[in-house]
Write a structure and sequence with these properties.
Elements (H helix, E strand, L loop, with lengths): L21 H12 L5 E4 L1 H10 L7 E4 L9 H10 L5 E4 L2 H6 L8 E3 L21 E5 L8 H12 L6 E5 L5 H11 L3 E5 L4 H6 L3 E4 L8 H9 L3 E3 L5 H4 L7 E2 L3 H13 L1 H19 L1 H16 L2
Parallel strand pairs: 1-2, 2-3, 3-4, 5-6, 5-8, 6-7, 8-9, 9-10
Helix pairs in contact: 1-2, 2-3, 5-6, 5-10, 8-11
EC number: 2.4.-.-
Keywords: Glycosyltransferase, Membrane, Transferase, Transmembrane, Transmembrane helix
GO molecular function: glycosyltransferase activity
């Protein structure tokens, strides 16, 4: 299943359609990839498999780490370290993630943000009508720690019973979270996926990210781009972008998240100013033309060899 719209000019091939055995799959992948002049591999499991199957070939490989590399399993960390020599270049999303890797690779590591989705361009939450709603967007997964967010909202609801929390996304924890919400008895709605998340964000008062770890949260930068005040745990990406109570708010447990909910919902002027500064912080980083050119500079460097 592909979560995003794909240009029809892009050809999709699935390794599972050919082999289920891991060795046979890697051999098929090696044969398939060798027909190309350059390979770009995203996400740790994919780029480790790509580096492994392309050993002793000359095809340039660009890998991209999209999460906090320190949170990988010990086995994956060892395999990644053993295979990194095979990459020509790596793209990461924050300077903190770049620093994680050995210094000998730093000249081959670039920091590039994700571009903003087209549905967010020319949109703003600063002048939109606000519902009494807090919004979060993310996969329903233990990494995102939505239970802490729900705990925070339950505390906040004791003094703000007319507010609701809308969580957008799908994932393996849906049923568990539904049961957790029912036990808490507060107005939390699991909204699934939305084709136009920008419009949902614009009508909210606050965006919240409760993750235990991240690379760079796309949803967070989208909210900041729109000018929505953001509450976030101190994860990679947020730590580079947010100055506490200037262009966002940090919170590290249910109590501090609930306090931030109260502060931003009760202080409209402060919330608007934080959102405006957030938008000004992010816009130059996520312009799609800027990001595209950064990627093209790397790609052209290795396709011209």
């Amino acid at each position: 299943m592909i979560a995003y719209d794909i240009n029809p000019a892009i050809k999709l091939a699935f390794a599972d359609d050919h082999h289920r055995d891991i060795t046979a799959k890697l051999l098929w992948l090696r044969k398939y990839l060798r027909q190309y002049d350059l390979v770009i591999a995203f996400m740790l499991p994919v780029f480790v498999a790509t580096l492994a199957c392309m050993l002793f070939t000359r095809t340039p490989i660009i890998v991209s780490e999209r999460n906090d590399p320190g949170k990988a399993s010990l086995f994956r960390k060892i395999i990644r370290r053993m295979l990194l020599f095979r990459m020509q270049h790596m793209v990461v999303q924050t300077p903190e993630i770049k620093k994680y890797f050995p210094a000998k690779y730093h000249k081959r590591i670039s920091v590039i943000a994700n571009p903003i989705s087209e549905q967010f361009e020319w949109q703003s939450a600063l002048s939109s009508h606000k519902e009494k709603k807090i919004i979060s967007v993310g996969r329903l997964d233990p990494q995102k720690n939505q239970k802490m967010m729900i705990d925070a909202f339950a505390l906040f609801s004791k003094t703000h019973p007319d507010h609701c929390l809308d969580i957008y996304g799908e994932g393996p924890m849906r049923q568990e979270l539904e049961e957790y919400i029912e036990r808490k008895g507060c107005r939390v709605r699991l909204q699934g996926r939305s084709a136009n998340i920008a419009s949902q964000m614009k009508s909210a008062q606050v965006f919240v990210l409760s993750s235990d770890y991240e690379g760079m949260s796309n949803a967070m930068i989208e909210a900041m781009y729109l000018g929505l005040p953001v509450i976030s745990t101190k994860v990679s990406g947020a730590k580079e972008l947010i100055i506490d109570h200037i262009n966002g708010c940090f919170a590290d447990d249910a109590n501090s998240i609930a306090q931030a909910f109260s502060y931003l919902s009760e202080n409209e002027t402060a919330a608007r100013e934080i959102g405006l500064r957030a938008s000004n912080t992010i816009k130059h980083l996520v312009d799609k033309n800027t990001v595209l050119q950064q990627w093209m500079d790397i790609i052209e460097k290795y396709t011209k060899l």
